[in-house]
Structure formats: structure tokens, C-alpha cells
Amino acid sequence: MTGEKKKKKRLNRSILLAKKIIIKDGGSPQGIGEPSVYHAVVVIFLEFFAWGLLTTPMLTVLHQTFPQHTFLMNGLIHGVKGLLSFLSAPLIGALSDVWGRKSFLLLTVFFTCAPIPLMKISPWWYFAVISMSGVFAVTFSVIFAYVADITQEHERSTAYGLVSATFAASLVTSPAIGAYLSQAYGDTLVVILATAIALLDICFILVAVPESLPEKMRPASWGAPISWEQADPFASLRKVGQDSTVLLICITVFLSYLPEAGQYSSFFLYLRQVIGFTSETVAAFIAVVGILSILAQTVVLGILMRSIGNKNTILLGLGFQILQLAWYGFGSQPWMMWAAGAVAAMSSITFPAISAIVSRNADPDQQGVVQGMITGIRGLCNGLGPALYGFVFYLFHVELNEMDPADSPDKAHDCPHNAIIPGPPFLFGACSVLLSLLVALFIPEHNALSLRPGGYKKHTSGSQGHAHSPQGGACEGKEPLLEDSSV
């Protein structure tokens, strides 16, 4: 009896907390207008625009804070953040099913942007909070769940495309603006501006974003239990070996995304401090590669899928990725980086093509399981990749000790000539993608993916308890990032 009373008390506390967090109005959404994809687009744009502004100041602060083993520390910081995000994404997604999306959008955006003002207050705390913020840095999971709530299945891929393109667009423009402001007025102004934009994003969510998951669509009780299977980040990974095709796809994703995740964490630092790019050139590089990637993932991807087929598109994308990483690894001249950047844009077709082959071959009721596995593997890579790159830089003594960030590009440019391979991690990455290409050769073009054994049934029975989206079962959409929230 005492145990039951305690349980009831805990339940009542969680109900009260939830009611405080989410402003209730008879179940009707509060905000400006009806819930729409455009609300999600604005939230994503403001968050990543704020972070994009900090590209130049962050490279400077990183080198000043960790003059010894800069690449290693950078890898560890991003590695911890990635692993924490991987562990927390399913739990936050499952909780947002019960408590609604708006409160979790507020939570994820707040904690993701919390480190920004600390950059000038205390760099050590800034990097510590960045690592820890990984627990809540899963805005995309909640955003894709928000979009799934308010779109029909046939509209969903277009809506996801719009959100992804907005993310790319925010990073195309903001680093260039941040670099210009940093040079003209100093880093402090850029940090203040980024903080202001992050606050604007939080205010926009509070005032303008309506709740996409009405109360009547949620579980009957506010205290509806969240099963541990839903919150377990390794749940989807355990099902990998149940089908040979799924296994091949997952190995391909792991071997190709591991170097990509590591590259994202350290490449701009590498361009700035080792190759000798100025802040303005780094910003221009991000903009050009971003625009080319958007073109590759829209126009070029469509043409390739129709002309050479799905599997060959994956193989071509992996081929471009090998070429790009090898070029980054051996390249010591700025023009080589620009040429490799154009190839990198073409390699961005790989993952959409993998998602397409999965969505075409898997049964409708198994889409979520397979896509959830792929998302889990990418989440794991986001933690392992940066740490691996940092360790390889450290292992090969690629250090920035002799260089001050304010030094001329010529001095930085001398660094790579001391080594036969200026960027060892990129070469390791190229070898990893080569293995991925060899595995991808064995992926069948057409094959029904089967994950029927007990593990799958258990998963579906767990998720049916939360099948309360406006489209019911259709919420198991084809966007991988959505699936890591077990929607």
C-alpha cells in the first residue's frame, strides 16, 4: 500500500509539472495560427543561424583555450556531445509523445543555445557546457516529429526537404556574416548578436509556435508510462542482424558516416590553422559547398535516381566521398581544398539514396524499425567520429602549437609541407569509405526487407501504445531523424 501511495504521488507530481510546462487551453493549440511546417522552419533557421555566426570566433577561442593538442580536445568535446545526443534522443522523443512537442522544442533549443554567451564569459565553461548540452541537443528529432504531426504521409518528404534545406541555407549565410562582423567589430559583437538570435528563437517558440500534438491525440493519461524499450538508444541496433540486406545497409552507413561525422567536427579548424584559409575564405568555402550540396541533393539526385538507379547512385556517392577525403588528406594547397569541396557536395547524395532504397524495399509497417536502426548508427558515429579524428591528429602530431590564430596565412601554410600526408584522419576516412563501397556492392537493388522475428513484434507492440499522431500509424514516416524519437 505504501508503495502504491508513493507511485500515485510521483504520478501527480509529473502531471502538475507537465501542466505547468504546457499551457493548456481546452486542448486547442496556442500560438500564431494553426501548426505548420513554417513554424518548424523558423525555429531551425534561427537556431543554426545563431551557431553559424560563431564559426570564426569559435575557431579562435578553441585554439586559445587549448593551445596544446587542439584537434584532440576538439574531437573529445564534440565526441562527448554526440554520444550524449545519441543516448538521450529516443527518451526525449518518447516524452514529447506524452507531453507535447512545444515544451520539448523550448527545452532543446534553450539548452543547445545555452553555451553561446559563455564563449566570452568563460571559454572553459563554454566548452564544458557544449559537451553536456548534448543531452538536449536533439532539436531535429522533435522538429521532425512536429512536422509528422501536421502533414499527411504524401506531403511528408517535401516537408522534411524544406526543413533540411532551411538548415543548409542558415549555414550558407551565417558564417560569412559572422566572419565579416568579427573582423570589422570584434568577436564580442558576434557573440552578443548570436545570443540575441537564440533568445529570439526561444521567444518565437513561447509566443508563436502552436502545439502540434493536441491533448486528445496523446495517451489517455498524462502519466502514461514510457517503456524502457522506447527510451533505449540501442534497441534499434540490436535488430541489425535479423536481415542480411539491412545488415549490409547498416555497415555501409557506419563506415561512410563515421569519417563524415569526424570531418564536420574538425575540418574548418583544419582549413583555418593548417591549410591557411582566412576567416573570410572559410566562410566563403562553407557557402559555396552548401549551395552545391543543396543542388546535388535536389536536382542531381533526382536525375541520377531516374537514370542509373538507386544502388548505383549510392555507389557513385561513395566514390565521390573517397575522392574527396583522399584529396583532403594529401592536399596542401588551398585550390586543392576548393576542388575537393566541390566533390564533397556531390558526395552528399549518398545518404538520401540510402534512405530511398530502404523506404522502397521495407514494408510500410517496418519503415520505422529499419530507419530507426540507420538513425541509431548515425547517432553513434556523431560521438565516435569526432573523437577518432581528434585522436588520429594527435597520433600523427598535427599540432597548432607554433601558430597564433592571428598569424598570417603564409605562416600557417608552411605547416603541411613538413608532412607527406598533411591530413592523416582524412586518409583513414577514405579507407573506411572504400570498405563501405565494397560492402554496398552486395546490397540488392530490389529485395523485401524482413524483420519479422520476435524483436520486431515486441517493438511494434510497444510503439502502438503511442500511436496517437493525426495520421495514426502513418507517423512512421520515411525520415530517419524522425525515427530516433520512436514516433
From TrEMBL:
Q: Which residues form the Major facilitator superfamily (MFS) profile domain?
A: 36-447
GO cellular component entries? membrane
Keyword check for Oxidoreductase: no
Determine if Ion transport is one of this entry's keywords. Answer: no
Q: Name one GO molecular function term.
A: transmembrane transporter activity
Where in the cell? Answer: Membrane
The way this protein sits in the membrane is described as: Multi-pass membrane protein
| Key words of the record | Acetylation, Glycoprotein, Membrane, Transmembrane, Transmembrane helix, Transport
**Which superkingdom is the protein from?**
Eukaryota
Q: Which parts pass through the membrane?
A: 37-59, 71-92, 104-119, 125-147, 159-182, 188-209, 246-270, 282-305, 312-330, 336-358, 379-396, 426-443
Which InterPro entries does the entry mention? MFS (IPR011701), MFS_dom (IPR020846), MFS_trans_sf (IPR036259), Sugar_transporter_CS (IPR005829), Tet-R_TetA/multi-R_MdtG-like (IPR001958)
Q: Which family does it belong to?
A: Belongs to the major facilitator superfamily.
Q: Where is this region: Disordered?
A: 454-487
Please classify the protein's predominant subcellular localization into one broad category: membrane
Under which name does UniProt file this protein? Hippocampus abundant transcript 1 protein
